[in-house]
Design goal:
The complex is a heterodimer of chains A (177) and B (344). Chain A is mostly helical and 177 residues long. Helices cover 78% and strands 0% of the residues of chain A. The chains are: A mainly alpha (177), B mainly alpha (344). Chains A and B meet through helix 3 and helix 4 of A and helix 4, helix 5 and helix 6 of B.
Chain lengths: 177, 344
């Protein structure tokens, strides 16, 4: 704790408001994320997920990555969670509590969660260790598109083809004839 | 010298918040009076409300007073929190959408690079509110209405966004202010007399945008989600009193806000070609909102004219129109626009 405080106080240009809001948003996200996995009602779990994803978008805005934040809202809240809710409500969206939802395969879920956390934490610490990322101004959308369509054009096209293949696969699986 | 330049940051921000609230609520009230009370009455050969205030102009306030006095009823099996929160989610999405719309050179709420992309993203959040309302009501008809609304809104969001892409390619920016400026300074084959409102060069996109907007607003002929002969009132069946009022305001506020987005994208937003007027930021700060509201009233007039003229689509016709007709045309429009942008 003292080491952390020393690290904070040693940096003169620390952005106080940004750090406070990072903490507030992170706390909301953690509570909501716990509610996602402990909710006994599957629709409530999906709605808590909306709060978590909105928190991620807010963190991106704090980092000055407007384009990524908006994409997060459009893709995850506007499409993925809506599809979750749509599918759940179309099939089995009972009102009230359903204990089996939260208890089924709980130990396996905890194991997967811990494993994912370990992998991501190792990767992040390994990449940046104690580098300081300075954000002076929001990232321009033009910069994002320039880097996608010049430096990262091959991965971008590969992802497009991959998604197209998944799309065609889904249609083939869904077709009855 | 700009009007706002002398104010400090918090004063500017407070002014913008007040402006946003007024921009949504006053416009919504105007649209209810002009279109729902008077224009439809004219189409149906009647006078409409005449008692409250001159020519019934205070009728809406009377309605608000009536709804506020009513009991806030919850169905016995309803999911209380989800049911209660749903109208606020829908209204929040409307208020977040209005922040991207500029009303003058300095009269904007936010002025950033993501602009219209942010608008499309937050407008898609209202689907969650509709699903919450439909499911939380613990009513079959509400749930069916909510599911129909979701299927429809997802289907028509694609042509809506694809129509916007044509405009973004032509303007070369997603910034709403930049799109207005691009239209004001644009030229049609070297003639800049009326600028270049994108309704002329992006006419196809404009038609697609208006049709998809009609569907996003769930106005007839796209009112399957609240089809009164089949589903009572769809996802808002169980709502009464203040919460029903929120849905009602939300419906017209969203119509106004979507129309303002359409007028920025296709009609030049706060800018209008006025002969003999020298460009001056302060003039446009005052004139801009008036010009924008005029355009909103014209566009919503078309929306409500269509609403009270055409019969309802069947569910399969509705989906076919979106996926097999509007989306391919919107994609073709993007390709043609891109070719013109690169070669000319």
């Amino acid at each position: 704790m003292t080491a952390l405080l020393a690290a904070i106080s040693s940096d003169a240009d620390i952005m106080v408001a940004q750090n406070i809001f990072f903490g507030v948003i992170a706390a909301v996200m953690i509570v909501s994320a716990l509610r996602v996995v402990t909710s006994a009602n599957i629709v409530h779990a999906a709605l808590w997920l909306v709060v978590v994803l909105a928190g991620v978008a807010a963190q991106f805005i704090l980092l000055g990555a407007e384009f990524v934040a908006v994409t997060q809202v459009l893709v995850y809240i506007g499409a993925v969670v809506v599809l979750f809710l749509f599918g759940v409500m179309l099939t089995r969206a009972s009102l009230g509590e359903d204990e089996s939802v939260a208890k089924e395969k709980r130990s396996l879920a905890v194991a997967v969660g811990v494993l994912l956390f370990a992998v991501m934490a190792t990767a992040l610490i390994d990449t940046w260790s104690d580098d300081r990322i300075v954000i002076d101004e929001p990232q321009r959308v033009a910069e994002v598109s320039d880097s996608i369509f010049s430096q990262y054009i091959v991965p971008f096209e590969a992802v497009s083809v991959l998604l197209l293949a998944a799309l065609i696969g889904a249609i083939v699986v869904a077709r009855k004839d | 010298m700009s009007l706002l330049a002398e104010l400090s940051y918090w004063q500017q921000t407070s002014l913008r918040v007040v402006g946003g609230l007024a921009g949504v609520l006053l416009v919504a009230g105007t649209l209810v009076y002009l279109h729902l009370f008077k224009m439809v009455s004219f189409m149906q050969s009647r006078l409409g409300p005449m008692e409250a205030g001159p020519f019934g102009s205070l009728q809406l306030l009377a309605e608000v007073g009536k709804h506020l006095q009513k009991e806030d009823i919850f169905p016995r099996k309803a999911d209380k929190f989800v049911f209660a929160a749903a109208p606020f989610v829908i209204l929040a999405s409307t208020f977040l959408l209005v922040v991207v719309v500029p009303a003058g050179p300095d009269a904007w709420f936010i002025n950033n690079d993501v602009g219209i992309y942010l608008g499309m993203a937050v407008s898609s959040v209202s689907v969650i509110g509709i699903l919450m309302a439909g499911w939380g009501s613990a009513n079959k008809y509400s749930l069916l209405g909510g599911l129909r609304a979701t299927g429809q809104l997802i289907a028509y969001e694609l042509p809506l966004i694809l129509a916007v892409v044509g405009v973004v390619i032509q303007a070369g920016t997603m910034n709403m202010q930049g799109i207005v400026i691009a239209q004001a300074e644009g030229e049609i084959f070297g003639w800049g007399g009326i600028g270049n409102p994108y309704i002329l060069t992006q006419g196809v996109a404009f038609m697609i945008f208006m049709i998809a907007m009609q569907a996003e607003l769930t106005q007839a002929p796209f009112d399957m989600p609240i089809a009164e002969s089949e589903l009572v009132s769809g996802y808002m069946t169980e709502y009464s009193g203040m919460r029903f009022l929120l849905f009602f305001i939300g419906e017209f506020a969203t119509a106004g806000v979507f129309a303002s987005v359409a007028s920025v994208l296709f009609l030049g937003g706060w800018w209008a070609p006025i002969p003999g007027l020298e460009w001056d930021d302060n003039t446009w700060n005052l004139l801009g909102p008036i010009v924008l509201i005029t355009k909103i009233v014209i566009l919503t007039f078309i929306v409500f004219w269509v609403r009270f003229t055409f019969p309802r689509f069947r569910e399969d016709q509705l989906q076919r129109l979106a996926w097999k007709f509007l989306i391919p045309i919107a994609l073709a429009n993007i390709v043609v626009t891109a070719i013109f942008k690169v070669w000319i």
